[in-house]
Amino acid sequence: MATYEEKHLTDINKELYKRNRELAVKNKTLSLLRELYQISILTLEPAALSKRIVSTIQLALGFELVGIYTYQAAHDALEPLSFASSQNFSDARISLHCNFDNIAIEHTINSSFFKPIVRDQHTGHTSHLCEIWDKEIDKETLQKLQDQSHIVTTLVFPLSIEERVLGVIVLCLNREYDSLDEFEKEAITSFINVIAVALDKSILYQQIQAANLKLKELDKQKTEFVSIASHQLRSPLTAIKGYSSMMLEGTYGELGEKIKQPIQNIYDSSQRLVTIIEDFLNITRIELGRMKYEFVTLNFKELAEKVVNDQQSAAKQKGVVLNYHAEGGKYTINADPGKINQVISNLIDNAIKYTPAGAVDVTVNDGKGVVRLAVKDSGVGIPAEVMSKLFEKFVRADDAGKINYAGTGLGLYVAKQMVEAHKGKIWAESEGAGKGSTFIVELPAKKG
Amino acid sequence: MTILDQIATQIIKEQELIIGPVAWEEAKRVPGIHVSDERKEDVIVENGDKKEVVNKLVHQYDRLFGRASLEVCKSAVSNIIVSMPPSEVPSSLM
Which of A95, A229, A290, A372 has the highest local Cβ count within 10 Å? Predict the structure, then answer.
């Protein structure tokens, strides 16, 4: 016979067991929630997210079937997203050829079972599978499926955010709901909200992705349009430029002094437009991946010197001194001469344009496996806030517009793309507005 | 592993979540329960009346920890016994 002390100890033991069980229940619930939370953070795509969620819940709680549907309000339909089932359920489904993975549940508002779930966000429960798929699958098959997989209760919870129903989760159990233990009940009520938030986030992600794709497509169409439009503009412009040049050269007879300046203006403007259109065409070629490079072995120093010589008259006209300095070295590179010429021309042209008075110094050197060109001016300089986006499209310093109205802000972007296509680097240095700037290009020297 | 071996293993594992390693110690005291490796959860219900051995295992926990432990045992194996003929289910789990 148990003594009073022994009985007392047994009572303490039982009480401790109850407390431990409560803790174990909470522990298991928290572990499951943590797992679901991790899934929701790491998985963005709705189908992948729901697949991992249903598998985790099915494994943790041993339900016969766990399924997630999304609610399409426009069609009043529940679209299947993912299912996970027990071996029992899978076997029964295969033997009965019962497939509802791709079947939407339509007209929920007309369904006495789904209407309170979708409209009023109530929980639905039934002991008959045919209440769920009453129109989609025949009753006899559903009854056999229910019997063979031992489903006793089916619970359907709305997944909603701020009274907006995103979908439902279907849980098929082999027991009555009341026979679930505390862990199972607590876990179910806890994970519904986690799933709703995760689903909401993943649906938003999907919508953003779709919008992004659409934008990319529109951007591509825009680029194509600019390309076509630019090509169409170039032909008449070439004619305007050519004829005005011929008129200035006297091909059609000597021009009177009164008409000479307007024709010169036509020629200068058409030249500026040709440059702008060429920039646009380069951009479209780059963005459509159609820019072609013809690499040959060339001497970088000779090329740079030629460009400097070509720009001397423009510098003189502007009253800017253009200096050139080259250090010793081989200067052999593998490059597309036309593209590198364009890059150097652009940098020197910019330096002359943005230097109201003073000097532009061009220096080249060869060493440490690279050839280097530096174009230093004493011009308007580059404010710190512009520096970081200087090589982006349509970026110009505020002061730049006051000095060079015709600039498009595309030249440096094109130059950067061309330099990078040669596996080189381009960057700018400036101590700020009014303090001049230096543009540097480095290209890999040819080995051997 | 027979279905009754699985039931015994599942019961001990579920009790372990609540009372820790004591669950394994108590299981080893039950005649007919053979635990060869706790880490591998290798439990064998020895031949003879296997149902009765499982009943004794359930009773062992019930005797020490009361009715709550019985509910834990039933809940732990509910997914297994649902597909068993009632005559094969140990009476303590009905």
Answer: A372
